[in-house]
Amino acid sequence: MFGMSIQLLISLFVPLALIIYGRKKGWLSWKAFGVGLLIFILFSQVLEKTLHFLVIDPSGTSLKGTNNVWAFVAYGALAAGVFEEIGRYIGFRFMLKNHRTYGDGLSFGLGHGGIEAVLIGAFSAVNMMVISHLMQTGQFEQVASSLPATQVDMIQSMLNQPDWMYVLGGIERIFAIAIHVALSLLVLYGVRNGQFRYVVYAMLTHALIDVVPALYQVKVISNIWVVESILALIAIASFVFIRRMNEKFH
C-alpha cells in the first residue's frame, strides 16, 4: 500500500507541479494543454486500443494468429508511434493554428503526458489499492469469480510485487512526460516549417523507445532495472532536447 500510494502521489502531483511552474513562468497555454490531453485520449486510448482489441490476443503478449514475439514487439511499438504522433500532427496542424509557440509545444506535451500519468499511473494505483483492500478483507474471491483466470493471475502477480516496483512505476511517469514534451516539440517544429519529415522522425523515435518496454512485456528483457535505466537516459536526452529546441523556436 505504501508503494501504491507513492505511485499515486507522483502521478498526480508531478503534472500539477509542472502546470503551476508553467503558469508562473508564463509559457502555459490552456488551449494547447487541453488539445494535448484530448489527442492522447482519442488517439491512444480510443483508436489505438480499438486496434489492439482487434489485433492482440487476450493474453496481451502475442498477436492473434501468431506467437512470434518480434511481430508483437514491432506491432506494439509502431502502433504507439503512428497513432500518437499522427494525433500530435493533427492537433498542431488543424486545432492549434494560432498556437504554435515554444510554450504551446511544452503545454501540449504536458497535457499529453500529464493525462497519461493520471490514467496509467494514478488510476492503476487506485485500482490496485482497492483490490488490495478487497483481498485483505476477504472480498476478492467474490470479484475474482467474475473475471477471466488470466486476469486474476495478473492481478495477483501485481499484488505480490515489492513496494519499490510501484514507486518505480511512478518515477517512470516522469520519464514519460519528458519524452512526450520532446516529441511534441519535434512535431510542432515540423508543422511550423511545413516539413512532415519531422513527424516521421517523431514516429520512428517513439516506436524505438517503445521497443524497450515491449521487450520487457514479452520477457525478452527480464530485468526491470535495465528497462528503467534506458528510459531514464532517454528522459535525460529528452530534457536536453527540450532546452535546445527553445533556441530553434526563438
From TrEMBL:
Q: Which UniProt keywords apply?
A: Membrane, Transmembrane, Transmembrane helix
Keyword Membrane found: yes
Do the record's keywords include Transmembrane?
yes
Question: Which Pfam families does the record cross-reference, listed alphabetically?
Answer: YhfC (PF10086)
Transmembrane annotation, as ranges: 6-21, 28-47, 67-87, 108-131, 164-191, 198-218, 224-242
Annotated protein name in UniProt: Uncharacterized membrane protein YhfC
Taxonomic path: Bacteria, Bacillati, Bacillota, Bacilli, Bacillales
